[in-house]
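Hey, I'm writing a tutorial for new members on how sequence and structure tokens pair up, and I'd like a real worked example in the thread rather than a made-up one. If someone can provide the structure for the chain below, I'll link this post from the tutorial.
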Amino acid sequence: MGEEPPESEDDLIGSLFTQVTSFQEVIRAAEGVPRDALSIVGRAGLRAGGSKVAVAHVREAASQLYITTKATQLNGVPVARALLDRIVGDVISGRKARAFLIKQEQTPHPLIQQLVDDRILHIIKRGWSGKDNPGERYDVLQIDYGCYVHLLGTNAAPQSLLGGDDEEDFSTVIGDVVVPEDDYRAIRRAILDLPTLLVNIDADAGGAAHGISGSPTFYEL
């Protein structure tokens, strides 16, 4: 109140964020979804209080958005949650990446589309073709930023990603860890073979409704 309005975009960013990288982190965290960007900025501002928004505030806000909004959408769809858990476990924990490939004809599968519609998986490139297998087309899917940083604050977080003590505060951990950029070298090592993962979704199988039998398979180009 009583202050002059910013005269430029740089002035506006400088008045709200500790540095330009904090603003850039909002862009990354929003994954191209305007409503997520607004929610993350609002939540980050509350965390910052009267101070400027820092990277750690953005990551905490993205994690909270994932926990309170996105993850809860899967409560009634256990098979989709199980699929996500296995993808996260293999891609993030196993391969230290945040994205993976899936054959283009498999992307429309209802469970993949459920995770995309819930903004937990994001399609960042369609029709990608590796030089080692040019006849095959893949879509590149990326695990939600908020899901990634949430994992860093749980016991499930791979210690090789944390690079610190188990007892570190969540704010410290997510402020220090680098969230992976789109690295196609890493992505090539994580191709989801969906048919071998989702087999015989049968309400009566093993006495459990909507169970997944089989195990996830990832392979490399």
